[in-house]
């Protein structure tokens, strides 16, 4: 392989020319790239909402598996992801222009595994302190902030005339309550199942 072909391959993954308002460009290349990014963004956003709502499914069952938290503490665990998610939406909205949509989507989706795995271990030990659950709950809020970066990312790809439809698909399917609730309950139930039977 020659030296000159290396930079070409490295640059293929970075979009250097993007003109969605140009009809010819949109037909030849833009529509395909924008659609691919949209259909990757939707499941990433759905996953983010599942992680964001995880404590809604888990908190109500913690005392059933042996924890001794008060009702106020359980409500706090349910509310903290919303608080941290709301606060983090502002910086998350600016991350796509700084790091690129693909990199940021991969990173922000990938880091959601941290609170999920940590929660899986935390629920297996009934001596896990409340403060650990608070930290995990706050980390779940990072998933809620993904909505801002996802919408910012998708809006860059589509011409103004098509942005409403694209953002509607991204926000509507990515935040579909039925899918999110079913997946969130399954994930929360899996954590509690592991807590009871996998010791």
Automatic annotation (TrEMBL):
Main location: membrane
Signal peptide: none
Gene3D superfamilies cross-referenced by the UniProt entry: MFS general substrate transporter like domains
Membrane-topology descriptor: Multi-pass membrane protein
Assigned GO CC terms: membrane
Pfam families: MFS_1
Single GO MF annotation: nitrate transmembrane transporter activity
Keyword annotations of the record: Membrane, Transmembrane, Transmembrane helix
InterPro entries linked: MFS (IPR011701), MFS_trans_sf (IPR036259), NO3_transporter (IPR044772)
Cell compartment(s), UniProt: Membrane
Membrane spanning stretches: 38-62, 74-92, 104-123, 129-148
Family to which the UniProt record says this protein belongs: Belongs to the major facilitator superfamily. Nitrate/nitrite porter (TC 2.A.1.8) family.
Name this protein carries in UniProt: Nitrate/nitrite transporter
Organism: Klebsiella pneumoniae subsp. ozaenae
């Amino acid at each position: 392989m020659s030296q000159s072909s290396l930079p070409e391959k490295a640059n293929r993954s970075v979009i250097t020319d993007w003109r969605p308002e140009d009809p010819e460009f949109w037909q030849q290349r833009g529509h395909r790239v924008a659609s691919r990014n949209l259909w990757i963004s939707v499941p990433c956003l759905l996953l983010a909402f599942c992680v964001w709502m995880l404590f809604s499914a888990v908190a109500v069952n913690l005392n059933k598996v042996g924890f001794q938290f008060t009702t106020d503490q359980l409500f706090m665990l349910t509310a903290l992801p919303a608080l941290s998610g709301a606060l983090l939406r502002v910086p998350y909205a600016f991350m796509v222009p700084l790091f690129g949509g693909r990199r940021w989507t991969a990173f922000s989706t990938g880091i959601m595994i941290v609170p999920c795995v940590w929660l899986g271990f935390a629920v297996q030990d009934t001596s896990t302190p409340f403060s650990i659950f608070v930290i995990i709950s706050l980390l779940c809020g990072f998933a809620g902030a993904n909505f801002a970066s996802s919408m910012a990312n998708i809006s860059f790809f589509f011409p103004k005339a098509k942005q409403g439809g694209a953002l509607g698909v991204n926000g509507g399917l990515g935040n579909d309550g039925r899918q999110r609730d079913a997946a969130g309950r399954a994930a929360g139930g899996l954590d509690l199942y592991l807590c009871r039977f996998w010791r």
